[in-house]
Amino acid sequence: MEKIRITLKDGRNMDLELFSDKAPETVKNFLRYVDDGYYSGTCFHRVIPGFMIQGGGFTDDEPGIKEKGKNYPPIKGEFISNGVNNTVKHLTGVISMARTFIKDSATSQFFICVTDCPHLDGEYAAFGKTVDEESAKVAKSISEVKTHSWRGYDDIPDDPVVIKSITRIE
Q1: pLDDT in the model for residue 13
Q2: Does residue 167 or residue 64 have the better pLDDT?
Q3: Cβ atoms of 85 and 121 closer than 8 Å
Q4: Of 163, 161, 158, whose CA–CA distance to 148 is shortest?
Q5: Which end of the chain is more exposed for a tag (fewer CB within 10 A), N or C?
Q6: Percent with pLDDT over 90 in the chain
Q7: Is the peptide bond before 49 cis (omega within 30 degrees of 0)?
Q8: What is the per-residue pLDDT for 58?
Q9: Residues facing 13 on adjacent strands
Q10: Contact predicate 108/71, CB 8 Å
């Protein structure tokens, strides 16, 4: 089982384990971005208390956000409504791929649930979870920061929550 560490610019960490047995293409895709260092300097650009924190596609661009840039081609969405038997539930601390309304549109963006989100089960590719309570608490604290809207984007943190790095750990 692969494990990763999300290190924030402020020094806090979130450790997660990835479920390559449940969502192998999703994990492979995510780790390709990790190994390329793609996530360094991106931010959690959408945070909603009682729901989730989303990151992996934008950098901080005061007062708003800016798209990170080149992504790999989209991958097949590994979830039940798309014909894949991925039974991982969207519980507190679960990481999942963000996508558009198109089921096979996931690229680099991901989200971490800060509460149980059963309405997402079978509709999004859940592929891992936080490994400890402290990691889940960090995610929850990010979801509770003050936010604003900017140029059609909502729920952007007033003070950017920047990812310093995402790395593999033992």
Answers
A1: 98
A2: 167
A3: no
A4: 158
A5: C
A6: 88
A7: no
A8: 86
A9: 7
A10: yes
Between β-strands 94-97 and 110-113, what pairing exists: parallel, antiparallel or unpaired? antiparallel
Cβ–Cβ < 8 Å for 89, 129: no
Provide, for the chain, the percentages of residues in helix, strand and coil under a 3-state DSSP scheme, each rounded to the nearest 5.
Answer: 15, 40, 45
Closest CA to 46 of 135, 155, 151: 155
Identify any residues that bridge with 60 across adjacent strands, giving them in sequence order. 65
Counting every residue written for the chain, the total comes to 170
Which pLDDT belongs to residue 133? 97
How far is 96 from 45, CA to CA, in rounded Å? 15
Q: Give residue 125's identity as a one-letter amino acid code.
A: A
CA distance 62 to 21: 40
Tokens of 69: 């840039």
Tens digits of residue pLDDT in 64-119? 667 777 789 999 999 999 999 999 999 999 999 999 999 999 999 999 999 999 99
Nearest CA to 64 out of 146, 154, 140 is that of 154
